[in-house]
Specification:
CATH topology: Dihydrofolate Reductase, subunit A
CATH class: Alpha Beta
Number of helices: 5
Order of helices and strands: EEHEHHEEHEHEEEE
Distance between the termini: 15 Å
Oligomer: single chain
Helix content: 25-40%
CATH architecture: 3-Layer(aba) Sandwich
Strand order of the largest sheet: 5-4-3-6-1-7-10-9
Radius of gyration: 16 Å
Number of domains: 1
Shape: globular
Strand content: 25-35%
Length: 187
């Protein structure tokens, strides 16, 4: 069975974005990109919510062609263009996009069917709404939380509508020069 991994930047007080979706507080550097790229390379399916998919699809297909594109932009653009994408969205139901499958209903059954197909791991970048829905259904296997040294005070929470205690197992942790700590938990 394929695993679903969620990669999410989070503030120390548990928010993944500011009240208006701001993400300008996220600290990134080449060390972090190399770390994330290693996991991304072991994934052959990217899962997104509609908002994140539209943001990613507007940038990554041609990012490698931009003047001054760095190693991460070139590598991630190539990966983005070769992998299939799965988008959780009711508003995109019925849309036909090359290399994209839209799941708009029967979330649990659709995702279990996809997890049972042959392939590598499935990775989610951001997409807090999709992560909330998948966590509620018990469909996420690992959380990769990139904890940024900042307190936002309010915004979009990492965890929402948790109905019962969930036990997590710490698999790995890495401290980056930026002060960000990556915590990899198995659910």
């Amino acid at each position: 069975m394929r695993n679903i991994l969620s990669f999410m930047h989070v503030s120390l007080d548990g928010f993944v974005a500011g009240p208006q979706g701001e993400m300008d507080w996220i600290k990134l550097d080449d060390e972090m990109f190399e770390y994330a790229d290693r996991e991304t390379d072991r994934s052959d399916l990217a899962l997104y919510g509609r908002n994140t998919f539209e943001m990613m699809d507007a940038y990554w297909p041609n990012a490698a062609d931009e003047p001054g594109a760095d190693k991460h932009q070139i590598n991630h653009s190539a990966w983005y263009n070769k992998v299939d994408k799965l988008v959780l969205s009711k508003s995109m139901a019925g849309r036909q996009i090359p290399k994209v499958t839209v799941v708009s209903d029967n979330l649990r059954a659709a995702i279990i069917e996809i997890k049972n197909q042959p392939g590598q791991q499935i990775v989610i970048f951001g997409s807090p709404g999709a992560v909330h829905s998948l966590m509620k259904e018990g469909l996420i296997d690992e959380l990769w939380l990139f904890v940024n040294p900042i307190l936002l005070g309010k915004g979009i929470p990492m965890f929402k509508d948790i109905e019962a205690a969930k036990s997590l197992t710490l698999v790995d942790s890495v401290r980056f020069k930026t002060g960000v700590i990556a915590l990899n938990y198995r659910l």
